[in-house]
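Protocol step 4 of 5: obtain the predicted structure for the target chain.
Materials: sequence only (see below). No template structures provided, no constraints applied. The aim of this step is simply to have a reference model before the mutagenesis design in step 5. Sequence pasted as it appears in the construct record:
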Amino acid sequence: MLMPDNTVFVPVQNPNMTGERTKNVRLSMAQRLSTFEEVEKTYTEEEALREASRCLGCPRRWCSGECPAGMPVPEFIKKIREKDYEGAYELIVSASTLPEFCSRLCPQEKQCQSDCTRSIRSEAVGIGRLERFVVEQHYASGNAEKVAPATGKAVAVVGSGPSGLSAAVALCKMGHKVTVIEKNEYPGGLLRYGIPGMKLPEDILDRKLDAMTRMGVAFQTGITATAETVKDYDAVVLAVGTGNARTLKIAGAEAAKDIYPAVSYLSGEGSAQGKDVVIIGGGDTGNDCVGTAIRQGAASITQIEMLPKVTKEQIVYSPLFERQKEVKFDSSQEECLNKFLKDPHLYQTTVKAVETDVEGNLVSVTTVALEKTYDENRRLTMVEIPGSEKVLPCGILIVAAGFIGPEAETAAAFGVETDGRSNILGYKTNAEKIFACGDCHTGQSLVVKAMVDGRKCAEAVDAFLNK
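Step 4 output (structure tokens):
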């Protein structure tokens, strides 16, 4: 069979047609409830080879098309089958600058694995697990990253979250001298301060930072960058994320203690020990707060979600059996079911008010149910149902409602223009030699998309420096 690029498609010989995905080791529930140790474990070589043999090497590469980074999935899995793990790693890093994190944090079931041909009749190939196996094999080998000859150009990257680290890696590999400037005490941004250890252990982050240092990337921490502090660099990349947490109008909240934005809570502020916990937000960050509260010893957990519960019906278009698409049940929800014997969610609900004691300590929250309606433009709107108020005990309230853009001070400090949502217009901004990437450029998004944006920004910087 001739491919569009005039190469000949060679089908996988004797593929493993086992329907179920090869399972990886996971911590026992007892361990998960008492430790922040990583829940998911890496495939052994035997497990990885077994799972790699399930890939059919499809000529259309649907999986790669669904990956935001455009990962050459069939190609790197073929290298695994050949036991060429370093070759597989080179293919992975040709598309991804941060595979250590993407393999752990990406929602593969919604991306690459969602269009795996095997998922039509059985489970999708465990692409994320195979990527993680290859990364761990690379680190075990001790092989160094390949860096181009020095160009003599110096670039400052302001911010060390996913997009900043991605841009720094890409620019360093291009031969530029890169300095990452971080306002916090330690680098990592969201990866360190917003994602709990059971999903991304700090030693995995620190290992990557050490590898970047060996590549030649320099880190300066505890510094708030300004236009003056970076004036001697040939180019500057702003990768400061979205620092403005979305707030909610809740009666009585101004004078109440123990109300925290999710990232503040996940980075160590406040504790759920012995308290009734209410979390506003049903997304991944809200789920991370659930898992953290369980491990801290919460007395109860309620997770408030404004939107309706998603229940997708299977569409049958074939007389043959059609397997439902993969749905990932977050590990924190499993833990909540195990400890409290219930799903923590309250759907189509919001918090209307908080009640405190005379010292300002939280005592309870008042919730109200919501119903769906549509405005004149047919957009979904949730409105309160009169008389549906309920009072729930609450000792700590965590708001995981997302972010609305970068801090305004950053744009002002560097003289860059922003859009109506306060996102910096880039990659190349209106300011001389100033670029922007990641959430401060695109708005709040996934780690993998921030990583891709950092890589694209690095390409724009490189083109600018080579003019």
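Step 4 remarks: The radius of gyration is 24 Å. The longest strand covers residues 362-374.
Proceed to step 5.
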